[in-house]
Amino acid sequence: MKRLLIVLLLWPVLLCAAESNVLPLRPAFSAEQRAWLSDHETLRVGLVMQAPWAQFDRRQQRLSGANVDLMNRLLQGMGVQGQWLRFADQDALEAALQRGEVDLAPGLQQTPQGLRRWRFSDPYLRVPHLVVGERRGSSAVDLDRIGRDEKVAVRAPSAVQEYLRVTHSNVQLQPVGNEREALDLLLRQEVSYAVVDEARLSLLLRETQFAGLSIIGDIGLPQLLRIGSRRDAPLLADILQRTLQALPGGELEQLQARWFPLSTRQLGNPLAFWKGVSVFLGLILLTLAAIVRYLLLQRRSLERQLLGARAVLSQREAAEQALRLSQFSIDNSTVGILWVNWDSHVRYANLAAERMLGYGRDALVDMPLVQLEPALSMDRWLTLWRQARGSQEPLPGFEIDCQRADGSRLPVDVSLSFLRFDQSEYLVVFITDVTERRRAQAALQESEARLKGIAGNVPGLVFRLERASAEQPVEFAYISEASLELVGYPAAELQREDRGIRSLVHPEDQARYHQTQDAALLGDCDWQWQGRILTRDGELRWADIKATARSLGEGRVVWDGIVWDITENKQVELALAESRAHLRELAAHLESVREEEKARIAREVHDELGQVLTVLKLETAMCELAFAGQVAGLDERLTSMKKLIANLFQLVRDVATALRPPILDAGIASAIEWQVRRFEARTQIPCLVEVPDHLPPLSDAKAIGLFRILQEALTNVMRHAGAHSVQVYLRVEQSELCLCVIDDGKGFAQAPRKAGQSFGLVGMQERVLMLGGRLQIDSQPGEGTTLLAHVALDEEALT
């Protein structure tokens, strides 16, 4: 009992002393953990903003709370900075963890779901759930013995509610939204007790309206608070656990006493008893205050000495480690380092220089430089010494061939720097092996020579366009010497900024040239142009430019291309196009003559033969009137002759119609409708035809051409399509007349066909081209065929 009273007496004094003299944390970290901490100097700490765990003072613009103090202490022990992230609730914190925005968070409870997302430390704080009510005696309340008519207010839903429901089935629970509402119900005597955790209760009991309430029990379900860290950082979890273990237990008790001060922490003790004990303890406190102060002073003195010794040892250890690291870095560097005296003798050489030159350990010390490089005589060395000593900057580097220990030569790059150290002067020689660089330079020169040789023998002008960045203009980095043979200008002249290939382009082709080039430069894509260029002698040539774009990153793009001389091919192409145009004109003329001949023959057949047949029919009728019934068998012969004459009449009409249908004289619209109806009657295939009521006048050649195209299209439908219906449209679209024929037949694949298999399609295509129009055929196997013929209207019709 005496010991208990002494501890209770000394506890406030020890608490104040501990708060005023907090020892620094010294966790024992491994080398791997220290390296991890050096790579992560700032850790992101997630805080759920709920008093008294964490709260933000807007006036002072700072965070405070139990979790904030704890994390400040742990971050100080780990030697890192903290980046505070505030969250409204636990769900927001979990969402931030899944997005990778949080490294660790305090004040978490370990759950099976949380183990899949966090690595939890050992519990650092135990927060009990207390029963609050009006005191009815000196003993604590037992929830198992309360009556069923007494209600207990508890926040729901929560783990506490589930715990009370399972362990205390006799208790009538009253769910509430928060702890304040539970205490309000208790004050209004609507419930007999309220269950509140110690943290929230410490805040609520500071308010005047709840000052009369007392802690009268503990339900036995404490919150074990842990610190969670992200699962993908196991080193962070180990570091956090070591730092937490190094934290003195008294500091956690101080943390709990500071943020959860309860005037009625002890359960079941009356207020009068504590008043008497306080008076007794106060008397003893006055007696022992001087002793405690003396002990604290002694302790502080010893702690200062201990901290000083630790700091000295840490600094010495850090200096030794830094020295070893520096020496290791110098020895294992890729650059050889030699400290040389004024007399050109080596004072110090690192391991890299010894390995580079093939010497053993310390074999280079006291060796003159002339032994490594005969060209470095004493006179030259003294000249370099004076230049380096009198210059504020290192001397420019140069390349030499050093002699290795085995007598071979090593190409190195040498740079010099003057140094004063410990009352002595040295010239530090840095040597770098450039064997690979020389080999790469030789390979590059060989590659450039090969490229120039290939480009010089290519039958065209090879060039490269380069753009250093997106903001800078393009320039010719290379033009082959074939330019002299192609255009008469040397490559150096074309590479000038004011020349280039654009200066060779014919004035009439400049617009197209710049259009294609600008599109390629803006889109970083391939460039292709074909047009006319002028040589130095004014000769006109055709050129074809093709360049491939390559992106080298950071806005740098190069175009590698070639300018081909296609003058001969272009002349042949133009001659062939002109020949085709003449042939098409000839074909159009022949077709016109043919149609005119057909029309003339049709008129002659219709007029001449029609007249003869009419006369013959009259003569036969006269014979029938004159000799009817007089000569045996004559009537039958006359009847047969009349039938033959009628058939001959129909044959004449069919021949004249086939040569030139008279309906064409009524207009192309009527002719198309007439032809479709004849096709429908002949094939029994339903046809839908649409023609405009008012059609602009059309030349006879174009009308006949469209009519012949329709005839050929319907013939193909009848022979090959196997269609169930046909649609024919004639429409005026802007300045063109469009004929459309659609069938729902079996269609065909639009692959290249062999000669002799598609004369009908070729004939339609040629007819449209002769009329100055265009023909489009769309077909797929099993999807029918659509034919579109576009012919321009006559200018007179448009005006």
TrEMBL record:
Pfam families xref list: HATPase_c, HisKA_3, PAS_3, PAS_9, SBP_bac_3
Annotated GO CC locations: membrane
Residue ranges occupied by any PAS domain in the UniProt entry: 447-524
Superkingdom classification of source: Bacteria
Keywords attached to this entry: Kinase, Transferase, Two-component regulatory system
One MF annotation (Gene Ontology) recorded for this entry: protein dimerization activity
Ranges of residues in domain Histidine kinase: 600-795
Chain ranges of the PAC domain: 396-446, 527-578
Residue ranges crossing the lipid bilayer per the database entry: none
PANTHER family in the record: NITRATE/NITRITE SENSOR PROTEIN NARX-RELATED, OXYGEN SENSOR HISTIDINE KINASE NREB
Name of the featured protein: PAS domain S-box-containing protein
Source organism of this protein record: Pseudomonas peli
Classification lineage: Bacteria, Pseudomonadati, Pseudomonadota, Gammaproteobacteria, Pseudomonadales
